[in-house]
Fold this protein.
Amino acid sequence: MSTIQTAQARPPAFLPNWPTRLAWLALAAYTVYATSILNITWDRFVLGLGNGVTFIGRMLPPDTAADKMALMARGLYETVEIAVIASALGILLSLPIGLFAARNLMPAWITWPMRLLIALCRSFHQVIIAILFVKAVGFGALAGILALTVASIGFIAKLFAEAIEEISLKQVEAIRATGAPFMNVITYGVMPQVLTRFVGFATYQFDSNLRNSTMVGIVGAGGIGGTMFAAFQKFDYDYLLTILIAIIALIMLSEALQNWIKKLYQ
Amino acid sequence: MNQTSSPPALEIRGLRKEYRRGVPVLRDISITFPDRGITAVIGPSGTGKSTLIRCINRLVEPTAGTILFHGRDLAQLRGKALREARRRIGMVFQEYNLVERLTVMENVLSGRLGYVPPFKAWLRKYPQTDINAAWELLDTVGLTPFANQRADALSGGQRQRVGIARAVMQGPQLLLADEPTSSLDPKTSVEIMELMVRLADSRRIPVILNIHNVPLAKRFATHVIGMAGGVVVYDGPPGGLTDEHLKQIYGGEDWLE
């Protein structure tokens, strides 16, 4: 008798969460509203599909004339150079910046400026930073290298600092207890705990730099992007396809390289 | 020996530690530790045993008081002087605190990091004497076949052996051990205690260890400090420790056999 009574008196196991329900509803409503004012219609989409087919038709077959292949090879080579140099600089600079930004190892007066620097590096897209550097140092690969270095710092240093903030301080404490100087504490107590993750961030950023260095050329910061953009504007769609295929091959190559490096550092 | 000519290896006077203002974990601790043998610090959880041990090598900053180590006040040391004092004090941890991703050999040699400059340490260019000493210690703790395995591949007892080897590798004048057996099973605990006693005896290193296993403390210690509520309530030989003392230290008596 008492069991039935208590069963009736029990409150529901899961309370309704009205704030989240309202938030979802608001998101749905805004999506519908934004679609209506941006003139997104089904007709335009269907028309666009037709245009797309024509565009692809004009891309085929890819243009493989010797002079254009040579031009592309030069552009691609420069793209790889930009990516490699920017990654190397970015990785080197991210190590100290990320370390000094880690709040569990460093006092607030160092971490604050470092975190501000990282936030600044992250606040703009690479292409916008590339435009700034083209204005500062002129057209060419240097602007691209600088822009991607900044982007690399923003990404690697931030994640590296976060990785350091998650390490086990017990291992650090043990090294400190041996009377080790600061640098030994870092190389023995901290680095072994974060090295694989750091390598992961660095290789991912290299891959990202490779893709982005095909883009910065559009604003004149060197690499294959410039050639690609010119092909676009001259309606050289068959040459454009050649370049796109080459970029895809390059990215796949880099993917294979990444996997190999990650295996090396397991 | 004349007391005035040779100060005790470790003497604590008026040690006080507050993590939060006005809430002391240690209140006015004064202990003169014996220059040899095993000193066991016993007491209930949360009574400041770990804090006491960590104040000695300054992993925890004391709020007030002096810690005289061979006549020098450790509480006042900073920077290089503090690091030089730390390398003369080995420490063994409850959870071993090995660098998991480094090999057993790297962990043992890390006991020398107070002596080997950073660039050489990074390149693993240790002096040959250190490397020989590390092999010898690995023989002693029975882990020579594991030298090149990563620390995270070992069992608890093996890890604590590495922890002890790392601490002894420092060539310390004092060995601190913070609950060295609390994460181990009873049999392994005894083996670890025997190993520590053997190493400390043969190298004449005084040991101070926290332990909450009273029978283990009585069995291995040559001196016992009983703590309760942040103060010392017993300071004497293990034989003098009575049920009355234990009641005072841990409170109640139902748990006593």
In short: The radius of gyration of chain B is 18 Å. The CA atoms of residues 205 and 231 of chain B lie 26 Å apart.
